[in-house]
């Protein structure tokens, strides 16, 4: 596998391990065992072929000869003659097979099956071994850094609560005595692991007069990829039969109008679904296993609903698309979708219309269609802050401030809406300005664009840009951005973009500790995961475009499904992975590989495949059910001829004769005049701290000596990880501090000289009580807030029973007066926090290790 695929594979194994709450086990067999078996099988086939009697099917003989002529003793399973799947020798009509040859054939038939099953279980052994080693390292880092990933939460809870068969943990007893009644909503999405963590407490509650009330719909179980299991719905009921179990079904649909309810009743009726399974070939994939087919049909056993007597209208329209290829499909559906939205606008607001897609690629495609037509749209693409024009302008300004010679980003900012709102200079004016510079060749003379602009528009520069230009490096990225927001009045001027502005601010705040400095933070935005960048709530009259999974639990006036398709992928990590779990009930998981060729020779692998195919089939039907039940008034469906797996099986779901149901009408309840009014919330207000925060950072003189400033920052970073050294391995603490600094200053060379410098500081006789503090508490980089609400960060704070020592590190004595005042301010804050403590302040000089007390 390429490096990228290995990383993806490790991620898949991590997800699966946490989904099932168990680790993987390797097959005891090794790759060498498989090689030996293949060589032995090749020789068996060769020997048998030499004694082939007359009457053996000629096609079979030819396929065996071709296999042997390749001379590949370590062969691929796909190269095996397919007739070895049969236990009996394929003879010509009227010919009998000699008993000894039949015996040889049966041995090879069994040997082929054994080789296939062995290859299936050893295929992932090397990767499971690598994963186990990585996981141990990963958990070691997590324990060290005190990190727990959300994906691991349920598995960790299971380990905490104990295993089945053991005495119930004290934690269980404590929780169980506190909680007597349990209500679980959306139970069909509950994972087996989550239920295992709850089951013991629920049993304890039931046995002592408590209750369990769980609500859900098996037909809407669409989160199996997260461990959800629709079968759990009935398993839980059956396991508690000794407790007066009562079941209630909601038979009335209070959301949808008559035509939509009747349409779904027909589509998801048992008779129609049975027809679909047969006509689409799904039943064939399941080997027409009656038990599996009935299990699929039983999920929709209670699908029929009655409509509310007040919802007597509704409309459903189905169109089948006979496309030649994907390009033609997209062109046809694009035209029909846009025309449909134009027509719907006469009867509905845009906000009443939702377009549902299966994945994010479809969301992006449909979004681009509507943007091209100037239809207001809200989707994960438009809700991505990096796609928002205002955010693009702010980031362009930040990039310019980080690198003033970046003419492109400065030009992008001064031609945007923010700059125009501040100055009244629209984009055309700025374009003329830029073109005039180009004509005069001014920029070719080596002048940066900002210098020319500053010279030609000094008033605007001084009023809006200068203070930020001079503040970069002095204040945090978060405070810099707040200053821009407040100074430019962005939250008041661009109220419709408030959610995007706040999301950017939130990201900068949460990420600035991880990405040190403005440059690293801007790099993060260039490659940030999409899920980090989405705004969750906005206010707009826009068409909603979202995936079916995101639409679950929601309702919309009108739903359009441009690409209704059914793609059944039984692999547990998605199409093409070939991942299957051999037995989901074992204490440890065995990951096996199943291909079409493997299934040909192994009934065991075929059975596992059928099990997973059945579950995937239920997933697909449930996805479609969720999509078709979202609308309140009208539903529009386009069904392409093809899907990823060939013919689109969704074409069989809706009977051919059913193309329209109900009729279009005007709905009084969607009249915009009767809508509940929306209340505007005043935008958040922030203080521009650009000026007042500068005392937290280096002076202008210090910035002139970049190397000296960087050296001081690196020493500060290492010392920020040096806590109380009493009875500790100082060298180990020092090593961890240096590693932290290397991660923080990834572009700097941190040599052993820094280790020596910090070791000298720690072991300095005059500084003994600063680093070896005995039983006293030590806080590094301690954030405190003054009476005025100003945030301060103390390099080192040592607190004993009756004393508090403040320590501030200084690179040298150059700016000691400013530092004196700063430490005094810290001392006053600490006195307010510890009013009964004696508070003292110290300056430690790092260039020539020494300490100086600060007098009050």
Protein described:
The protein is α/β, with parallel strands linked by helices and 856 residues long. It is built from 35 helices and 20 strands. Strands 7-8-6-9-12-5-15 form a seven-stranded mixed beta sheet, with helices on both faces. β18, α35 and β19 form a beta-alpha-beta unit.
Instruction: Report the β-strand fraction as a percent range.
Output: 5-15%
N→C terminal distance: 66 Å
Cα shape: globular
SSE class: alpha/beta
Oligomeric state of this protein:
single chain
Catalogue the unreliable spans. Answer: 163-168, 693-704
Largest sheet: 7 strands, mixed
Radius of gyration (CA) equals 35 Å
Which key terms come to mind for this protein?
856 residues, alpha/beta, 7-stranded mixed beta sheet, 5-stranded mixed beta sheet, 35 helices, 49% helix, 12% strand
Please provide a brief summary of the model.
The protein is 49% helix and 12% strand. The chain has 35 helices and 20 strands. A seven-stranded mixed sheet has the order 7-8-6-9-12-5-15, sandwiched between helices. Strands 16-17-18-19-20 form a five-stranded mixed sheet.
């Amino acid at each position: 596998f390429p490096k990228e695929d290995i990383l993806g594979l490790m991620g898949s194994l991590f997800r699966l391990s946490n989904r099932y709450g168990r680790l993987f086990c390797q097959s005891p067999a090794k790759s060498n065992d498989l090689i030996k078996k293949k060589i032995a099988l090749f020789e068996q086939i060769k020997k048998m072929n030499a004694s082939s009697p007359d009457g053996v099917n000629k096609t079979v003989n030819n396929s065996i000869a071709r296999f042997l002529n390749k001379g590949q003793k370590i062969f691929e399973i796909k190269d095996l003659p397919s007739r070895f799947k049969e236990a009996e020798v394929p003879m010509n009509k009227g010919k009998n097979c000699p008993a000894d040859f039949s015996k040889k054939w049966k041995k090879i038939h069994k040997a082929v099956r054994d080789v296939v099953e062995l290859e299936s279980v050893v295929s992932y052994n090397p990767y499971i071994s690598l994963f186990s080693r990585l996981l141990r390292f990963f958990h070691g880092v997590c324990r060290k850094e005190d990190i727990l990933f959300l994906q691991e939460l349920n598995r960790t809870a299971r380990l905490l609560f104990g295993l089945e068969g053991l005495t119930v943990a004290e934690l269980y007893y404590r929780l169980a005595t506190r909680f007597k009644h349990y209500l679980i909503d959306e139970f069909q999405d509950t994972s087996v692991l989550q239920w295992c963590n709850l089951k013991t407490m629920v049993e304890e509650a039931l046995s002592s007069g408590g209750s369990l009330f769980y609500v859900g719909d098996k037909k809407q179980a669409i989160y199996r990829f997260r461990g959800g299991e629709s079968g759990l719905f009935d398993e839980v009921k059956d396991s508690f039969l000794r407790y007066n179990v009562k079941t209630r079904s909601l038979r009335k649909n209070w959301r949808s109008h008559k035509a939509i309810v009747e349409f779904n009743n027909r589509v998801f009726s048992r008779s129609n679904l049975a027809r679909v399974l047969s006509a689409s070939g799904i039943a064939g994939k399941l080997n027409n296993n009656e038990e599996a087919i009935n299990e699929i049909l039983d999920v929709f056993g209670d699908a029929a609903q009655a409509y509310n007597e007040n919802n007597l209208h509704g409309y459903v329209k189905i169109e089948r698309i006979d496309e030649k290829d994907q390009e033609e499909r997209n062109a046809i559906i694009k035209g029909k979708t846009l025309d449909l939205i134009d027509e719907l606008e006469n009867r509905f607001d845009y906000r009443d219309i939702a377009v549902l897609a299966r994945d994010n690629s479809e969301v992006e495609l449909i979004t681009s269609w509507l943007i091209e037509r100037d239809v207001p749209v809200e989707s994960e693409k438009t809700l991505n802050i990096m796609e928002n024009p205002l955010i693009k302008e702010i980031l362009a300004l930040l990039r310019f401030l980080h690198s003033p010679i970046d003419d492109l980003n400065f030009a992008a900012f001064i031609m945007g809406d923010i700059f125009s709102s501040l100055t009244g200079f629209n984009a055309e004016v700025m374009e003329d300005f830029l073109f005039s510079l180009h004509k005069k060749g001014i920029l070719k003379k080596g002048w940066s664009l900002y210098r020319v602009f500053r010279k030609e528009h000094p008033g605007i520069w001084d009023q809006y840009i200068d203070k930020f230009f001079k503040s970069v490096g002095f204040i945090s990225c978060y405070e810099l951005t707040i200053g821009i927001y407040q100074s430019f009045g962005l939250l008041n001027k661009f109220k419709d973009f408030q959610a995007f502005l706040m999301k950017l601010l939130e990201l900068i705040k949460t990420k600035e500790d991880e990405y040190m400095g403005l440059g690293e933070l801007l790099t993060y935005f260039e490659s940030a995961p999409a899920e980090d960048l989405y705004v969750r709530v906005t206010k707009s009259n826009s068409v909603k475009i979202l995936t079916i999974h995101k639409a679950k639990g929601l309702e919309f006036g009108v739903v359009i499904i441009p690409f209704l398709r059914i793609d059944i992928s039984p692999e547990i990590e998605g199409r093409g992975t070939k991942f299957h779990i051999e037995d989901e009930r074992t204490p440890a998981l065995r990951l096996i590989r199943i291909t079409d060729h493997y299934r040909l020779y192994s009934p065991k692998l075929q059975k596992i495949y059928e099990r997973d195919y059945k579950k995937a089939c239920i997933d697909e039907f449930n996805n479609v059910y969720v999509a078709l039940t979202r609308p309140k008034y009208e539903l529009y469906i386009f069904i392409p001829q093809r899907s990823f797996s060939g013919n689109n099986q969704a074409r069989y779901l809706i009977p051919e004769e059913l193309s329209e149901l109900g009729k279009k009408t005007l709905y009084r309840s969607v009249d915009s005049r009767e809508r509940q009014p929306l209340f505007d919330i005043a935008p958040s207000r922030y203080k521009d701290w650009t000026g007042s925060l500068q005392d937290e950072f280096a002076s202008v003189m210090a910035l002139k000596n970049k190397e000296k400033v960087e050296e001081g920052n690196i020493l500060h970073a290492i010392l920020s990880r040096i806590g109380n050294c009493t009875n500790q391995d100082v060298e180990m603490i020092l090593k961890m501090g240096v590693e932290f600094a290397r991660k923080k200053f990834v572009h700097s060379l941190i040599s052993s000289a820094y280790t020596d410098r910090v070791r000298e500081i720690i072991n300095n006789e005059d500084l003994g009580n600063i680093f070896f503090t005995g039983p006293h508490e030590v806080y590094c980089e301690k954030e405190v807030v003054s009476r005025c609400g100003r945030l301060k960060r103390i390099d080192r704070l040592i607190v004993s029973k009756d004393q508090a020592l403040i320590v501030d590190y200084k690179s040298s004595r150059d700016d000691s007066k400013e530092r004196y005042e700063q430490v005094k301010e810290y001392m006053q804050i600490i006195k307010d926090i510890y009013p009964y403590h004696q508070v003292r302040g110290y300056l430690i000089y790092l260039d020539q290790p020494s300490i100086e007390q600060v007098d009050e």
